[in-house]
Amino acid sequence: MSAGAPIPAQPGRTLDVAAVDELVRRRARSHRIGRWVIHALLLILAAFFLMPLVVMVMTSLKSMPEIRTGTLLSLPQAPNLDAWRSAWSEACISISCEGLSGNFINSFIIVIPSVLLSVGFGALNGYVLTKWRFPGANFVFGLLLFGCFIPFQIVLIPMASTLGFLGLSGSYAGLVLVHFVYGISFTTLFFRNFYVSVPDDLMKSAKIDGAGFWAIFGRILLPLSWPIVIVSVIWQFTNVWNDFLFGVSFAAGDAQPVTVALNNLVNTSTGVKLYNVDMAGAVIAALPTILVYVVAGRYFMRGLMSGAVKG
Amino acid sequence: MAGLTIRGARKDYGRTRVLHEIDVDVADGEFLVLVGPSGCGKSTLLNMIAGLETITEGSILIDDVVVDKLDPADRDIAMVFQSYALYPTMTVAKNIAFGLEMRGVAKPERAAAVDRVAKLLQIEPLLDRKPAQLSGGQRQRVAMGRALVRDPKIFLFDEPLSNLDAKLRVEMRTEIKKLHARLGTTIVYVTHDQIEAMTMATRIAVMNGGYLQQLGTPKQIYDRPANVFVATFMGSPPMNLLPATVRGSGEQAHLEVALGPDGVGGATARTPLPPNVAPDQVRDGRAVLLGLRPEWFSEGATPPPGPVWSFSHPVEVTEPTGPDVMALLSFGEAGITEHGNGELTVRLDADHAARPGDVLQLHADLAKASLFDAESGQSLLLATAGAAPGPDGGEAAHDTATAA
Amino acid sequence: MKSSGRLRRALPIAVLSPSLLVVAVGVYGFIAFTVVVSFTRAKMFPNWDWVGLRQYPRLFGNSRWETAVDNMLVFGSLYILASSVLGLGMAILLDQKIRAEGVLRTIYLYPLALSFIVTGVVWQWILNPGLGIQKMVRSWGFENFELRWITDPDLAIYCIVLAGVWQVAGFSMAMFLSGLRGMNEEVVSAARIDGAPMWRIYQRVIIPALRPVFLTAFVVQAHLAIKSYDLVVALTQGGPGLATQLPSTFMYSTTFTRNDMGLGAASAVMMLLAVAAIMVPYLYSELRSERPAS
């Protein structure tokens, strides 16, 4: 059995020094061109993504006449914070003319307890589901997980009724409860996936050492949970701060979060449209979550990825 | 088929030098094995030959053409990877034909080539399957088929057998060797397994810490290791290294070997120098290591002919391995070096009835023995073939390629 | 110590119970509630005038709902397609050993940190017919340039697509990038040795191997598309007219503005079914392949 005839001569077989040199030169040139194209594309994309942010900030620093005579990307001639002042404390939103400051604070009042509650319980749930297995634990996890996926329109009607029934309509507590209910699925998912990779042997040796349920959680698991705690906090903070649907459905007047107020400012106010004030309002509403992102972007990413990869 | 020349090759990653001055000449049709522990640079060197890594200094020539600036695709080489690296979404047939397709070979010729190679490697029934449906051994054959079908000048193998179980590994080793014999291709093969190196290579390049330690035939490497690293890395169990001191000079020179507290007849033994020691290396008081492989000892009342070192010593532990019995003798604290824990391993006949505590009458064959400088680890024997300067300098015979 | 044993076993369940209770009621209970309401003739408040399935044909015959569903299909498919392709492209570009990768990734991803309201409000300004992009491009010399999509009933939906893709493309980029980075590098090396130019390697080897990522990206983005509400409200308020009405805005306006709760509930149920149709098969296959023995 012979090895078979060799494949007939193919293009690409290097033969002599001259051919090699030419090949090297050609490859190097197309490689250089390739790099330029790649960098150009990346820059164009960066411009695309940055443009709205730049426009938002620049517009908020301009005066209305300037906006009318200039264009989107023309630099502010005399940048000033008047629009910011107006958006913060003077702008008229629906009936009152006190700007977004109150709503901004409302958002914090709503977000902080929601985050604490859902992250706290999420950690406990993750702990129980992974380290204290009972028959049906995975099923229970699946049941909890489902809450991540529902379109929230499906719960608006009963939630409105329930909040009314509990006397929490339109209040901060009502919204905190709502965000807890629909945030617990995500935080449980994060902690459960994190704790799954903590070796069970750690648990066993702790039990042998006599540690009980709370001791194991507090002294062993929590200290090594900081990465996922940060991820969960950032995720919940961002989601609750950015929420609109629940805010507009269940918060009334003075208790409305800043997203609802911004929408009212821009889309339901009457009279002349003040684009600089609108943009200043947008900046105010966006600032906290952007700051969190800039400071802790890595954890933000991790939350995104684990939320998606595990369904 | 072609020759490969590596001349003064160096590789730096930033400020770390990963490969130092590698010079290797591979003749057409040779099977060169690069062997060494993890991190020694063998895979880096292979990737440089392939063009997957750039070369910092030096040059690589395939068939006397300098290729270091060429893309892998233009070097006319093929490579088999440790993970086989089959294209997961293509069938076996498409996997094998991919390289031909990229070079513009027409469909009928591609199909014929695939069939030829499939027949050679006995993978015809697998042609329509996807890699995920194949076993490890089958994937390995497909990877080899992909390399063979292009009939390149040089075949590169990067630890292709590491992911197979022991039995399959032995089978595939023989297959690759047979393929080489039949096709006469030039092969550069990387492995960390010294048995693979010994059984498959026509020549072996032993590497450590980015340096070429020794280049030679398996027999040269085994019988005349250029330094202590090669001596202990190649061969299993490793070569025994006994600390000793040179005493006297010239014709009267001899060795004083420390036998430790169990030594019959004293703590040290006196033995003539191995005959192959280079005369200018003999200096009174020099600390050396006497290298003796386990199978270079005989046991019994009468010493065999030739230069021998005879001594008696009690057995500490015996290890029957099946084909033989390994007897371990303790040389105590005196025998402990960075290369061993003061134990001498001696190979005895499988039927030998030695028990712990028995005193054996041993004769070491000095004609085969090696002698190393205790500090530098370099061999002190005459003209050790193919050795290259190690990190500590030191001398050895070296076939230098003519500078470019 | 018998009681402590029982207590110990009950403790895990006890700890889970607040969440379980809250989810049982807030998710499953409420879904059931809404389904039941969709079977009634509720107007401004839930009532129990049972009408069976009658709200559903009423829904399907409703022209506003039809428009909303049409818009959803156009928006959804463009949105998913555009952000997947853009995300893949960005991931491939970033995978080319770019020195500024960290900075670029931060730039591509920050929109995800914004509320859809902020996005809608800013893009509304950018797409302003008189003062936005149109004016800017004209000032560059293209005097006949027109970009009045936002006021054009036929084109307004593309504004939503544009803003939505801008916000979310970074996410699919992140997914594809991690898929690219998780690939066996040796397969790419093998393709290089086989003589394939880099673009061919992407086309024949790398992108086909990313199939699972495409699937996940599709599922997540389809889910986001169906839930889209904030963006539409802020950008176009569902207008002009009904041009950008989506099922989510239909549900809200039908229930809370037009006080036709039964119909609104039916539309919410339809939204749920759409999401379930995508997620349930996906989750089922994922969970099955993940847990062979547990």
What is the alpha-carbon Rg of chain A in Å? 28 Å
Proportion of strand residues of chain B: 25-35%
Form type of chain A: flat
- What are the segments of chain B in which pLDDT stays under 50 over at least 5 consecutive residues? 389-404
What is the overall silhouette of chain B? Answer: elongated
**Could you give the distance between the termini of chain A?**
54 Å
Q: Give the oligomeric state of the chains in this entry, treating copies of one chain as homo and distinct chains as hetero.
A: heterotrimer
What is the ordering of alpha helices and beta strands of chain A? HHHHHHHHHHHHH
The helix content of chain B, as a percent range, equals 10-25%
Detailed description of the structure:
Chain A has 13 helices and no strands. Chain A has 311 residues and is mainly alpha-helical. In chain A, helix 7 (172-196) packs antiparallel against helix 10 and helix 10 (226-242) packs across helix 13. The radius of gyration of chain A is 28 Å and the shape is flat. The relative contact order of chain A is 0.13. Residues 1-12 of chain A have low confidence and may be disordered. Chain B has eight helices and 23 strands. A six-stranded mixed β-sheet of chain B has the order 6-7-8-3-9-10, with helices on both faces. Residues 389-404 of chain B have low confidence and may be disordered. Chain C has 294 residues and is an all-alpha fold. Helices cover 73% and strands 0% of the residues of chain C. Chain C contains 13 helices and no strands. Chain C has helices at 2-38, 55-61, 63-94, 101-109, 116-126, 133-139, 156-181, 185-193, 198-209, 211-227, 230-235, 247-257, 261-290. In chain C, helix 1 (2-38) packs across helix 13 (261-290). The chains are: A mainly alpha (311), B alpha+beta (404), C mainly alpha (294). Chains A and C meet through helix 1, helix 4, helix 5, helix 6 and helix 7 of A and helix 1, helix 3, helix 4, helix 5 and helix 6 of C.
